[in-house]
Amino acid sequence: MAMDDPGQHAGPGTWDSSEAAAQWQCVAAERARFFGPVTERMLDLAHLRIGGRVLDIGAGAGDQALAAARRVGPTGSVLATDISATMLETAAMSARKERLSNVDTHVMDAQMLDLTSDSFDAAISRFALMLVPDIDKALGEIRRVLRRGGRFAAIVFENCPYLSIPHAIARRVGQLTSPPEPFGEFRLAGPGVMAAPRRTPAFA
Question: How far apart are CA 41 and CA 100, in angstroms?
Fold first, then answer.
């Protein structure tokens, strides 16, 4: 299992804190219970196969990367990428705990994938794509690294009360006139948003 040197990369602020990584680890079982079925559906849509090579965009604590690794088996591989070295350390630790030797981690920005073109059979992203500043650029990079016929499947937030209610309270109590983040969790929510034509050619 490979792990990039965190010192070689700039940290992404809050997501790179050891406290955030520890909190994600503490609620791993709860995440699996809530998001397990939709995660498996994402892996189905990505057409993961034994021996396949999979790229995970915005892997975070690595739940979906580990699930993908189980699917592709020891002859396949999963590369978990994220802007947070600390979160990827959590993912690597979880993979070691499960004795999954086919998971690697790499600190990397989805908008600039330092990867060889046409090198992955599938790509996945769980609750991360909507947080990328330039989504079109990221989609172009994902498409570039996928082999011909490769599939990309992503999960994005709809109007999730767990996130929308705290934001609504912050705007009301704090008298904010705009969302607390420059790009919000729900920017890809709504019927047809992901199906609409984009500047970057869409995936089949």
Answer: 21
Task: Supply the pTM of this predicted model.
Answer: 0.76
Tokens 């690595």 belong to 62
Residue 69 in contact with residue 78, Cβ under 8 Å? yes
- The 10s digit of each residue's pLDDT in 181-200 is 444 677 777 777 666 545 44
d(CA 51, CA 69): 10
CA distance 128 to 12: 14
Ordered per-residue pLDDT tens for the chain, 204 residues: 443 333 333 445 554 555 655 565 566 677 777 788 999 999 999 999 999 999 999 999 999 999 999 999 999 999 999 999 999 999 999 999 999 999 999 999 999 999 999 999 999 999 999 889 999 999 999 999 999 999 999 998 876 665 566 666 766 776 665 554 444 677 777 777 666 545 444 444
The domain segmentation of the chain, as residue ranges, is 6-173
Rounded Cα gap, residues 41 and 136, in angstroms: 24
Report the Cα 103 to chain-centroid distance in Å. 14
- Alpha carbon distance 7, 26 (integer Å): 25
Determine the length of the chain: 204
Task: Decide: 142 and 132 in contact? Cβ < 8 Å.
Answer: no
> Hey, what amino acid is at 119?
S
Q: Which fold has domain 6-173?
A: Rossmann fold (3.40.50)
